[in-house]
Amino acid sequence: MHLRRGLNLYKLILIPGLNNKEIGSAFVSLIDEGFKNYALFQQTKNIDEFWSWVSEFKLKVESSIHSWIDKAGGEAGKLLRSLRNKAHQWWYFLDHPDIPPDNNLAEPTLRLAVTKRKVSGGSRSMKRFQNTANLLTVIQTCRRQGRSVIEFFDQAIKAMVNSSVQTPSLIPLL
Length: 174
Prior knowledge:
The chain is mainly α and 174 residues long. It has helices at 3-7, 9-14, 20-44, 47-69, 74-85, 87-90, 92-95, 106-120, 126-144, 149-161. It has two domains: 3-95, no CATH class; 106-161, no CATH class.
């Protein structure tokens, strides 16, 4: 989940309450710093510099949570407890720099499945759900690889009926 939307920090800034604006602004700044340094690492690929920044940043986040948690009202307190208790989820990209800090790639990939579910009313059985999931996985994988979905299915069907035709693979060639 995207940190900014998942934590509703912008909403918190607008909600009247005990230090909400200050707390929301402080954590938006921290998230922005995290994204900025992640982007810098993606450009430079300097892992030693990244790890050095990560250790300092984690301390900064923990210190900010600790300093604000007793000064927070209900909504801000919930957000701070979530940041503290689920830090391994919210800040996953800090320990795994190969994973982006947002889900921007996942959203358009899942859009097809969500639209299909809304239009059709969903699946009526687990078997149909799994078949739909498999079909959508093939479609999205082909799209991500810049391949024709129709050509993939054409080759797959030909391979099913003719053993001399090679079965297509979704594993990209390196």
